[in-house]
Design a protein that fits this description.
about 160 residues, mainly alpha, 5 helices, elongated, transmembrane helix, transmembrane, membrane
Length: about 160
């Protein structure tokens, strides 16, 4: 269940971080159009695929699930520190500590985007469920009506047979 909380968050955080922080760097650093297109299209397509998945599947989303993606984000940040310690190069330019307070603000903003992204997805889940209830009610009657149990169905069948 916890692993299902990552795609909705990543589908928002990854494109936002890419377009806001990394795109300008890639645009200036990559001279090959094919490399630029691959980096750009992957992030755009992954966003739409994840939103489609959230919209058309019955993934359950509750507010307390925000904690696991934040934990994974912290672990990923620690991994980038390890990569920097080994390679002496930052995974993403905005993570560079030599920027001082600016880097700290970026770390906090990425975490904030993750939380906001989670609750945006939570809203999409709630909207999807409300639309499903409304459509189901329109097509099948009252959605909140309990379904009959096996014993109730047997009793109805026995009563119908006796008539």
């Amino acid at each position: 269940m916890l692993i299902a909380t990552l795609p909705p968050i990543c589908s928002i955080v990854t494109p936002v971080v890419f377009w806001a922080l990394i795109y300008g760097y890639i645009k200036n650093q990559v001279s090959n159009t094919e490399q630029w297109w691959l980096a750009t299209s992957v992030h755009a397509v992954s966003f739409f695929m994840m939103i489609t998945e959230v919209t058309f599947t019955k993934m359950v989303c509750v507010p307390r699930m925000v904690l696991f993606p934040l934990f994974v984000l912290i672990l990923y940040t620690c991994l980038t520190f390890i990569i920097f310690a080994v390679d002496h190069a930052w995974v993403y330019p905005f993570l560079d500590w030599s920027q001082g307070a600016k880097a700290a603000i970026w770390y906090a903003l990425v975490a904030l985007v993750a939380v906001i992204g989670f609750f945006l997805n939570y809203g999409v889940h709630q909207l999807r469920d409300a639309v499903a209830r409304r459509v189901h009610r329109r097509v099948h009657g009252n959605f909140e009506q309990p379904t009959p149990t096996d014993k109730e169905l047997e009793a109805e069948n026995d009563a119908a047979e006796q008539v």
